Amino acid sequence: ARAFLTRESFFTTIVENKSMTQVGDALIAPSEPGGVTLHRLVRGEELILTSGAYLAGDEGVKVESSMQSPFSMFGNYSGTGVFLLRASGVGCLAI
Q1: Cα(67)–Cα(53) distance, rounded to whole angstroms?
Q2: pLDDT of res. 1
Q3: What residue ranges of the chain have pLDDT lower than 70?
Q4: Which residues contact 89 (CB under 8 A, 6 or more apart)?
């Protein structure tokens, strides 16, 4: 439902380094021009993201779709839409 409602990708890629001796890198980039920010979520914190803002997250980060009120002035006039993403849990989030 998240992919359909928020125009996010339907597919999810899981990157895992199983080597105990070598460090690896995973390179990510947004589809739109702009920078990427890493935000560390702590227990009890929630972050509301607009459509297209979510790039990647640690295994402990949960991202689900959330609906704001269709009568909200913010949703109607800001261009964010009625469906947003809600990130919670513990870990690093790339937005």
Answers
A1: 16
A2: 46
A3: 1-11, 68-82
A4: 41, 57, 60, 61, 62
